[in-house]
Task: structure prediction
Amino acid sequence: MNIRITLATTRRILAQLRHDHRTVGLLIGVPSLLMILLRYVIDNELAFNRFGPMLLGVFPFIVMFIVTSVGTLRERTGGTLERLMTTPLGKLDLLLGYALAFGLLALVQVAVVASISMTWLGLDLAGPVWVLLVVAVLDALLGMALGLFASAFARTEFQAVQFMPAFVLPQALLCGIVVARDQMATWLQWISDVLPLTYAVEAMQQLTGNTDITDTLVLDTVVIAGCTVLALGLGAATLRRRTP
Amino acid sequence: MLKSVVSVSDLRVDRGGREVLHGLTFEVPRGSVVGLLGPSGCGKTTLMRCVVGVQVVRGGTVTVLGHPAGSPALRRLVGYSTQDPAIYKDLTVVENLRYFAAVLGAPAGDVARVIDEVGLGANRDQLVATLSGGELSRASLAAALLNAPELLVLDEPTVGLDPVLRKELWDLFHELAERGVTLVVSSHVMDEAARCRRLLLMRDGDILADDTPDGLRAATGTHDLEDAFLRVIAERQEAHTP
Result:
């Protein structure tokens, strides 16, 4: 691992994004639009205050999952990964390079969506805003790490995109947004307990309901960070210098 | 100093459940331009992947500059250019090269040097996705030249180039060899064989001949390398027919 190579990788990924205005526009515009839609579909300030923050945690997760799984798949199939594997670049340099670049992007995304939500849409957050940003960026990094891992199992971009519903929708159904977790069957709660998105949503719920940082919130944050590191480790294991 | 830059012994590789390299043995001396010639599918790319250390190998050894192929020590000393240009399509030529230069820790000015060497000065700020096929492969080649590697492994670097550019690149290869760089260059075009100092003729995962172009012509009694190749194949088949 070499900090110079890691930062060069981050710069390279940001440069790729700079050339791709449409992707950046979609990354920031789509969650904003969905949030606005949600506000007027619900049309109830109390209910919006409950659902809004949860979605602020889920959007960056989903978006980064897609962007990373397709992005790394392109590195694998385009031969650039093979070229990089013949250079001094370490696997960790590549992973952290991606994490830094997409973490930064997630920060911008969440900042825009949160600003729109808290001004125009009247979202009322009890907890501190910076914690919201931290949790949302962690969610984004979790999505990124899982996307990186998932890309190892995809041969084509078609498959990579299909992994999004496979990895994300079951988590979204079980995380407590659709039905509160304590109203689910016990076996569903067990599954929900081991899925990382559950903790992302719980962290956001804690932020809406409490003015200070609760123990549950801290625990949730640690779980999300732990899952991210685990998924990055699994992702690193799928990057091989030698391939068949 | 080591005499051989690449030393391959009884190299066996399986791909897709069958053996594609059947126990290859050869040496590549320092400062030579070795042409890896043979039809598509004969194992040239697999062999080159073994030399740069990205191929899972079943048996045998590949030693490069005194280290096992793919060793960390070699990652700054070996330049590799794949057949499909392995560069980022959504970056400009210079952005691509700056990135690879940073990864390799190449000296300042190296990016300008390699752009000049492959003749892409006019395209330096162009997005790679908008380059023509020939420009694309030259941009990929430029990335392999960064940090002045001691061994260059180039998989079909001249595909899709017009004769003038092709000649320029071969002149560059020989110039590099004179500076002590060793080059392994694959091609499926026989007229490029004559430009190499040494030839490895491959077919179906075997090396049929390992000789200089002149030596090969003399051994087969032909003037044309294409004929020489055909003669070698015919001899091989006779030897195998009981």
